[in-house]
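A.,

Following up on our hallway conversation. Structure tokens first:
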């Protein structure tokens, strides 16, 4: 889901108050700027910068209202639930894959709070997610790990994909898929939730 400064989702009272105060400060700042005698180019830069700050602040506030995050996934996490939204051919809307996860620490213990994430839709990733969802509905605990790929690893993956296509052989994914994020290409590998590893107790 693409955030927009002009969308109007349901706002909590706290977010609404913060945004109201911020807009008030921006208006006061602009009134002060317009009444000063500084160069008009500097005025224009300050006004554009103020509007940009408002847009980014609004998008940040929306993350508190329950919108799924499009940031990079944690390296390791437990999957609580999933939802697949397939592309709509009639409205030309892009599909998306939503997962509700909880980050795991170095001992495979959940940390923080569960969070919703949005991934770009691809048919292979949908197949993996549907398998994960089926396991969750059977009461099985599932997890995943995420790794950013370098150029050589991406080229190798593409080469294997081309070879599988030319030989008409089904591609063995091994429980993982690739997806593009805001800063690169990532490999997500699904599996059972590992057992928690309790740290060694200190002798003292």
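Then the amino acids I'd put at each of the 204 positions:
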């Amino acid at each position: 889901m693409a955030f927009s400064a002009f969308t109007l989702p349901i706002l909590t009272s706290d977010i609404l108050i913060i945004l109201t105060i911020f807009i008030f400060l921006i208006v006061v700042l602009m009134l002060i700027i317009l009444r000063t005698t500084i160069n008009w180019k500097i005025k224009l830069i300050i006004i554009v910068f103020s509007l940009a700050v408002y847009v980014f602040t609004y998008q940040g506030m929306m993350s508190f209202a329950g919108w799924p995050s499009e940031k990079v996934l944690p390296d390791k996490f437990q999957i609580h639930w999933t939802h697949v939204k397939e592309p709509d051919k009639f409205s030309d809307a892009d599909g998306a894959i939503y997962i509700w996860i909880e980050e795991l620490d170095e001992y495979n213990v959940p940390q923080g709070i569960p969070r919703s994430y949005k991934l770009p839709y691809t048919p292979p990733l949908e197949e993996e997610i549907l398998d994960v969802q089926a396991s969750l509905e059977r009461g099985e605990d599932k997890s995943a790990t995420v790794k950013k790929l370098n150029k050589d690893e991406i080229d190798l993956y593409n080469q294997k994909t081309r070879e599988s296509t030319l030989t008409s052989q089904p591609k063995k994914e091994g429980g993982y898929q690739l997806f593009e994020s805001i800063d690169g290409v990532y490999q997500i590998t699904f599996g059972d939730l590992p057992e928690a590893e309790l740290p060694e107790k200190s002798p003292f």
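The chain has a mean pLDDT of 78. Curious whether your intuition agrees with the design.

B.
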